[in-house]
Specification:
Elements (H helix, E strand, L loop, with lengths): L5 H9 L3 H23 L2 H20 L9 H20 L28 H18 L4 H12 L4 H8 L3 H21 L6
Helix pairs in contact: 1-2, 2-3, 2-4, 3-4, 6-8, 7-8
Length: 195
């Protein structure tokens, strides 16, 4: 069974062969654990996250949510990466500020700012949040992407956005509002965690 490809083992496991998962886990455990340990440099914590990672892998396979488009090990490492990020997010201290002046909005998804004593974990988490947000921005209409890019990533004021794009300040505010509403909807529908 050790010579069978990962893809065939995954399909065997999904179809009820419990031995297949044991072979897969045995085959990839060292690489996954090494990846986690490299990120955390803490043996006990690495072991906990390693176990959580394989529970997540098994659960995802059992629920038939595995997408067989790439290599199985890369998928496992992505799950491990997400588990490490989740750990840092739980540990990090974030504070919220209001992005917009709309009274009915408790906070914006862009409200993550670092504490003054930003440590490596905070920086890592904040970079990952920014990358995740940039990725989901492509799901927005182009005019909303432009407003988000100018306001959040380039730091323009709404007056500067108005001058840069040739639209009124009210139109810029409206587009920002719709962009934030659409992003919240995307985040909710896809169970994306940004904090």
């Amino acid at each position: 069974m050790n010579k069978i490809s990962d893809t065939k083992l995954v399909h065997s496991y999904i179809n009820g062969d419990e031995n297949a998962i044991a072979v897969l886990l045995n085959r990839h455990k060292d690489k996954v654990y090494s990846y986690i340990y490299f990120k955390l440099n803490d043996k006990e914590l690495s072991e906990d996250i390693f176990q959580d990672t394989f529970i997540k892998i098994i659960t995802t396979l059992k629920e038939n949510r595995y997408n067989d488009e790439g290599k199985f090990i890369n998928w496992c490492l992505r799950i491990a990466h997400n588990m490490v990020i989740d750990h840092f997010r739980r540990q990090s201290k974030t504070q919220f500020i209001s992005e917009t002046s709309f009274e009915n909005e408790e906070y914006s998804i862009w409200d993550f700012i670092s504490s003054p004593e930003e440590c490596i974990e905070d920086k890592f988490v904040n970079e990952q949040i920014e990358n995740d947000l940039k990725t989901i921005l492509y799901l927005l209409p182009t005019d909303q992407q432009e407003i988000i890019n100018l306001r959040i990533f380039r730091g323009y004021s709404f007056k500067e956005i108005s001058e840069e794009t040739g639209i009124s300040i009210n139109t810029a505010l409206g587009r920002m509002r719709y962009a934030l509403m659409n992003l919240r909807k995307i985040i909710k529908e896809n169970n994306i965690i940004l904090s």
